[in-house]
Amino acid sequence: DGEAWRRSIALASTGDELGGILAERANAFLARHPTEEDRLRRLFTFKLATVREDGEPTRRRALRSEFSADEWGLVTELADHPNRLLITASPESGQTYAEVAHEAIFRGWHRLREWMNGEREFLIWKSGLESNRRQWQATPEQSRHDALLMGLALANAQNWYLKRADDLTAGDREFIDLSLKRESVEREQRQRERTRHRALVAIVLALIPLAVLAVISVYQSREAIFQQSIAVQQRDTALVSQSRLLASLSRQFLQDGDPSGSALLALAALPDRNVEKPLLTDAVEALRLALSIQ
User: What's the pTM value of the predicted model, to 2 decimals?
Assistant: First the structure.
């Protein structure tokens, strides 16, 4: 029984003495099985330890599902006499798991400390990833999407994933995959929104000359002074409405995160050499805001 064995070794010795006993057993196992060193290193370093940036390594409870059949065979051997380096247990309400017999092995076994020091950066990140993944799993289903990795944390995870996927659990790999998928979907949505904005800008800008020509045509067709006065008023009213519409669209594009499109619309709302548009405060303010974001 795993708990009984843990109590027995705790009573037998403590601190450095216990670490020394476990280190002797580990070295004796390697002496009998020299070809198992790499598997032993990967087992203790990547599956059975949690490493925090501000503390010593601590035991990690690794579920049976995290091990291949060959790895679990090694676990079983290390838990049996005469090794007694690990403990396995099968609780009634959970999965079978394995963990180190005592955390003193992290302090007492010099070779293990060397292995872990060589992987410290990766192990610190891996422990943080597992903590984030457990928080994500504990988040209610309706909010779980927002608990995935994003930003710098996702970029770091992707970098380690590409280099060390084999040293991550299936659960951690799935967590990163889902985070990357969400980021890809959101990036595509942002790209579609930018494309829609630019298409709308192009349409509006293409319609401006037609609208201006229509206004000028009406103006030129008036023969009488009275009729010309009415045409001028209609033209000015249309141009003011047009400028206000463009200024309004400019502010909307700025709110939607498209400062380039906002600036183009604001410029279109201002007077130019070809058309005597009115100079509206709304258009000037819209251009100022758009340029301040550039």
Answer: 0.62
Peptide bond into 91 cis (omega under 30): no
Read off φ and ψ for residue 94, nearest 5 degrees: -160, -175
Q: What is the pLDDT of residue 223?
A: 54
Mean pLDDT by 10 residues, the chain (294 residues): 51 68 94 95 94 86 93 95 93 90 93 93 94 92 89 93 93 94 87 82 77 66 59 68 72 74 67 62 68 68
Which pLDDT belongs to residue 194?
A: 82
Q: How many C-beta atoms lie closer than 10 Å to residue 279's C-beta?
A: 10
- The rounded Cα 18 to chain-centroid distance in angstroms is 42
Report how far residue 246's alpha carbon sits from residue 264's, in angstroms, rounded to the nearest whole number. Answer: 9
Tokens 């292995």, residue located: 115
Q: Enter the tokens of residue 206.
A: 């293409």
Judge contact between 107 and 21, C-beta under 8 A. no
**222 Cβ contact list (under 8 Å, min separation 6):** 228, 230, 231
Pick from 285, 194, 190, 291: which is nearest to 246 by CA? Answer: 285
Sheet strand arrangement including 62-63: 62-63, 97-100, 86-89
